[in-house]
């Protein structure tokens, strides 16, 4: 690297140290600008030393803007670097040069240019509210061409990064207004790109390289997700933000396209997050409840209806599921013990179908949904899909165990599916008084709950973890199921007997005595080894110690001894499956009550405790 590169490296070190270099701000800006100017988009690849120098200039510019946004520099250094930035993006028109570098044949140069652009756009929005929009016209032109190349990939990445920053709150308040202005000139071009990338043409061989097309489609799916997140969280709804829902069949058809397996997986995950309204949940910081999108419900219904129509047409038979999942998007299958399926695909497909059914049965008939939906038929198709891919490997396994098998490694999806299946069960039951075949198509919520508890070794403290954590919808699922149990105790008893019968048949078929319907689960089979949010064992010990000291002073030792004796009697009341479920629920009630009385429970559990208390009398009746 030449002397200029070494000088820039020294400046980089001074920036990290929070100092300004000895040269003037005009000289530094001029040096960076001249380095970027010497690299043209149509020129052949420059020498390695020049490419390194160019990458260093781009990275230095990005770092300067980032440090200024973070307000982490001393006053004198802040004044110096602000003047450098003002000169670069003012009189030297660095933005136009960055737009030109997006077309560079060197992918690293193109990507670093996109990063530098994104950081400046975010900074400009923070300072001026977004005064410089010339980049938007350049992006629109690239999107309309829809040619898969590094330029398109960099534009998609840059726009996605800017929208994410707005949703994270990095640009300050007025996020809704900022996004509305930002997207106002890009609607038609992004819609054009959606049509060109995801039309039925993708079913035929492409002249474009599959790797380049796959990279472009993955970047585009990221953009579609942030657009959906903007709609969900800020109520910003433009025409392009509706296209994911209204034209969802294009995403469904990606599974049969001549693209890499990773792209098909990303398309399914985008569909899943859209139906579950989870877009952006991992990184977005706000949700604006005052701007409700009244058309979202109708658009989600259109998406769900499209899913059901495609499933009816045999879409599940076209969904690829690799025998072993690729790691980090690679194509190399790593040899593992046993046959391993891609659980990410299985979970996504299962939830897409389940949520589509739930959305359709909850919508009024005049909104376009059918009066009677064949839930049984769709779930039978799903069970066949899972059976084809080896999810239910044992003929003696209980059909309802598929929920715990498929979602064993993803608790939030497991609770979402179990909650959804309760609604489907009640809907099917309202159409037919008989539920004798409900287990055949794997939709018995009593079996799901029993098998869940058994996979947790009936450890109530794990349920307490779920109730305290906000990462799953377990509270909503638990309340919904307890209400069902209160009204449907006969079916609960039948489910207990059915599971025990399956266990007996499996033991007769398997002399080793291993439970055939046991759910493979990442959790340990012993309660003490299950990861905890809180060490409830030590908490209980400390509480008992405090109670003993308090009881000595207040004369309540007999009450404590009585409670301990009652607890021991409850634990050994029954060894049957039914008894274990009730003991687990009663232990959960005791733990929640204790934490609530001490003011340690994170929310008011009064309604939940009432439901748990209403279950105890049924235990004596059912026993």
UniProtKB/TrEMBL annotation:
- In what residue span(s) does the Protein Lines C-terminal domain sit? 582-616
- Extract the ranges annotated as region (Disordered): 506-563
What are the residue boundaries of the Protein Lines N-terminal domain, all occurrences included?
Answer: 159-496
Q: Name one Pfam family in it.
A: LINES_C
Name under which the protein is recorded: Lines homolog 1
Origin species, per record, is Onychostoma macrolepis
């Amino acid at each position: 690297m030449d002397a200029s590169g070494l000088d820039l490296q020294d400046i980089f070190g001074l920036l990290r140290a929070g100092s300004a270099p000895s040269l003037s701000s005009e000289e530094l800006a001029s040096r960076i600008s001249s380095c970027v100017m010497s690299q043209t988009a149509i020129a052949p690849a420059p020498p390695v030393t020049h490419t390194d120098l160019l990458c260093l200039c781009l990275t230095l510019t990005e770092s300067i803007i980032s440090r200024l946004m973070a307000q982490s520099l001393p006053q004198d250094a802040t004044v110096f670097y602000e003047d450098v930035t003002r000169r670069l993006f003012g009189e030297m028109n660095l933005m136009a040069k960055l737009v030109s570098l997006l077309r560079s044949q060197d992918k690293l140069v193109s990507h670093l240019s996109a990063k530098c652009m994104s950081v400046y756009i975010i900074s400009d929005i923070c300072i001026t509210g977004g005064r410089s929009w010339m980049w938007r016209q350049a992006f629109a032109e690239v999107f309309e061409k829809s040619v898969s190349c590094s330029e398109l990939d960099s534009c998609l990445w840059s726009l996605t990064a800017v929208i994410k920053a707005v949703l994270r709150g990095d640009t300050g308040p007025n996020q809704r207004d900022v996004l509305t202005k930002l997207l106002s000139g890009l609607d038609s071009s992004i819609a054009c790109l959606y049509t060109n990338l995801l039309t039925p043409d993708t079913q035929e061989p492409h002249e474009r390289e599959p790797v380049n097309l796959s990279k472009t489609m993955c970047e585009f799916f990221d953009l579609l997700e942030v657009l959906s997140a903007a709609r969900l969280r800020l109520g910003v709804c433009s025409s392009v933000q509706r296209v994911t829902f209204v034209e969802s069949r294009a995403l469904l058809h990606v599974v049969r396209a001549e693209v890499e397996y990773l792209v098909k997986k990303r398309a399914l995950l985008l569909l899943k997050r859209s139906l579950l309204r989870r877009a952006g949940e991992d990184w977005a910081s706000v949700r604006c409840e005052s701007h409700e999108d009244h058309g979202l419900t109708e658009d989600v219904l259109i998406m769900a209806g499209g899913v059901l129509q495609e499933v009816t047409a045999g879409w599940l038979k076209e969904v690829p599921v690799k025998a072993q999942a690729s790691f980090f998007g690679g194509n190399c299958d790593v040899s593992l013990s046993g046959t391993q399926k891609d659980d990410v695909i299985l979970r996504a497909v299962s939830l897409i179908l389940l949520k589509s059914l739930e959305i359709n049965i909850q919508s009024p008939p005049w909104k376009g949904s059918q009066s009677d939906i064949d839930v049984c038929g769709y779930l039978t198709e799903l069970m066949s899909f899972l059976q084809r891919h080896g999810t239910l490997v044992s003929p003696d396994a209980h059909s309802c165990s598929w929920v715990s098998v498929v979602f064993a490694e993803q608790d939030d999806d497991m609770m979402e599916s179990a909650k959804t299946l309760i609604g489907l069960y009640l809907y099917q039951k309202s159409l037919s008084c008989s539920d004798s075949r409900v287990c055949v198509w794997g939709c018995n919520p009593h079996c799901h709950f029993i098998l869940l508890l058994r996979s947790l070794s009936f450890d109530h403290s794990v349920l307490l973890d779920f109730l305290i954590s906000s990462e799953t919808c377990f509270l909503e699922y638990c309340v919904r199921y307890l209400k069902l149990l209160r009204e449907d105790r006969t079916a609960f008893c039948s489910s207990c007997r059915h599971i025990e019968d399956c266990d007996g048949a499996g033991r007769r078929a398997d002399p080793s005595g291993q439970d055939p319907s046991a759910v493979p689960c990442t959790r340990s089979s012993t309660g003490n080894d299950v990861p905890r949010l809180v060490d409830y064992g030590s908490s209980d010990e400390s509480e008992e110690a405090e109670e003993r000291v308090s009881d000595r002073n207040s004369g309540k030792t007999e009450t404590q001894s009585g409670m301990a004796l009652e607890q021991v009697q409850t634990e050994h009341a029954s060894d049957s499956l039914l008894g274990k479920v009730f003991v687990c629920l009663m232990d959960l009630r005791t733990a929640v009550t204790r934490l609530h009385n001490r003011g340690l429970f994170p929310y008011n559990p009064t309604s939940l405790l009432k439901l748990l208390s209403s279950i105890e009398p049924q235990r004596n009746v059912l026993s």
